[in-house]
Amino acid sequence: MKVTSSFDFDVVALQTEDTLTALVAFDAPISENDAARPGECLVPVLDRSGSMSGEPMNSCKQALHTLVDRMKPQDVFGLVTFDSQASIHVPTRLIRDHDIAVVHNLIESLNVGGNTDLSAGYLLGLDQARRNVQRTGASVILLSDGHANSGIQNLSKIGEIASSASTESITSTTIGIGQGYDETLLAQIATSGNGAHRFAFTSDDAIAILSEEGGDLLNKSVINAFLRIVPNDPAIVDGIGTLQDVGRWLEHNGNGDPVVVIPIGDIYAGERRELLVQFKLPGIGNLGQHTIGDFVFDFVSLPALEQSQVTWPITVNVGTSDEASVRVADPTVTTAVLITESAKAQREASENLRKGLTDAASANIQERIDNFGELLVTLPDTEESNVVRVSLQREIDHLSKLARGIKFKDANLMSKSLSEESTAGLRGRNRDENRRDRSREKRDF
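RESULT FIELD:
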């Protein structure tokens, strides 16, 4: 597991309050022996309400067949379905204990029913996951094409349910199918449940996305990861936070000192995850390098299931006011901050489109394009800056594509596309090129 960190500025002024942002990056290795990995538990929860009739249901069947065939004997599989009520369609048990032919027949026998009690299906899926959670945890994959019209529909309540499940090592991933589903509800479940939210615009998308997300969940590299920040001065605890949609809470170490805890969750093989941690610092009274605390990264590595810990100091350089006045921001960190702000703008644009405010949505995106452009022209001509320049131009090109989509494409399609991207961006999961391009390359705006 490779972990790196860097601040946006390399110096703060003597006896001056300041705010620094640290980019902490986690690069997960790829296991060479997939057959020997620990078992994973996957419980798809499938909407079989009337609107799923025809191509959507047929595509989900095909995707489920493929998922079952790629699972190993040590994995656990079960299938929950729901319409106006929820039921266990395939009992949850080890693959080696299933009759695979029977599982495929049960999948093929799926038909459609009535209304959409999404919460009933989700709660039953969580129950099955809890009963079968493995040492690597468990994952619920919720697939739906509609709005919940019965059961729990309150965003905060269902978010609390997903968050509670995540503390039991149960991840919630959501896949919205077509243009009729509630992207705010599914994004809330995924964000609170430490999973991904994906938008399957076409039936082919549904097949590919379940394969992609299922593949990730079956190939975890790290589980139960937490970043702990142990400040030397307890007084700065309240000034430590994140710029993304991740949790934060306090615990106390053996000395009774407060520690900031940020859950990272599971990291998939080959994935790059980024976290932006902000520090509001009081004035420091002495020149030179100062250690303000420690980063402590705790995780369980796979396939060995070994508990590991990486600790490194958090240091800042204190200089004169003249030295601080000419400091130059690290372009890599600045770009990461802009990408996070871009994700927030995409979420706002999605909300504006749902309200019919097309001009406001366009303004959300154009402001981000301008911000990236301003940074682009200030970059020096260095090898490091050239790498950043490529990244910035890629983001500008993509935001321009989104702006065209907002102007010329269906507002519902764009709202869901923006919601999918913003959910990934606000969790620091859009910096891995392969995973980022999964959503970006599916639709041409």
